[in-house]
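Predict structure. Chain length: 280.
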Amino acid sequence: MYGGQLTPAQQIEGRTVALVKNFTDRFNISLLDGGGGICTTMATIICRRLGLDCWNNASSAVGPVSDAALTLAAFNGFQPGLLQISAWDLLGILALQPSDLDAKFLADADCRWLNRGGYDLMDYTNGAAGVHGVTGLPRAKSLFGSIPAQLKNPDSYASKLKTLLAVRQALNISQGFLNPNVAPTEVASSVVVLPISWYDNVAINYIALLIVNFGDAQQDFSLKLNFPVNNMQFTGVSSVTEVWPASNTTYPISSGAIQIGGLKRLSARLLKLTVNTTSA
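Prediction complete.
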């Protein structure tokens, strides 16, 4: 399925490659020879997206990049299924520059070495620059710092990610499913609203609602909650509470809708909707 229609895999691949090429051209990011993938790190993509010079002004970039990276983690982590986060993501690793590498690494036009710079999760080398691992790849620049250093700072990416993972586990997000029967009203094109439910389990009396703003402008809108009676036996919403990033913030329900205010650019919220249920 692609765009709601059955589409041949070749067409999907062609469209995806075209989108990737447009993105890399726009933000000056290396592309794998043949156009098959982006050769960079998540932190680098975010830096380009935000227009930040993370290599020369790293200290001023840490906060914005960390916030955007956390939004991406929320978009993936607050959906059912597995969540995978790489060490490069955890440390906010920037892609290497071609000049950082020995010519042999790029001789065959394989740019993937640029996003495989060395790292030290625990900072056993005490932040030493230019350290080369057994592969001969240099240590890449880390925006967020080592895991021990981050966990000492409650405002760091790793500390906030730890909270995100605790919420994911507490709500059993991984075992849910995206519920097509839950239909919030339309919002701005930059905003994604994903409702998550659990299969015919009236013991779980809530729905998780993930709201993400991928745009550059703050969003304020009314979100109407339409919950038809279906195989989940939901008959209405009794309360709405934000559980991430805020905790236990209540949203008043008026005429079957809630007001979402101050949804900042590149930010996410997870709401817990307590629902009325009936037995099957």
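Summary: Strands lie at 177-178, 191-197, 206-213, 219-224, 234-244, 249-251, 257-263, 267-277.
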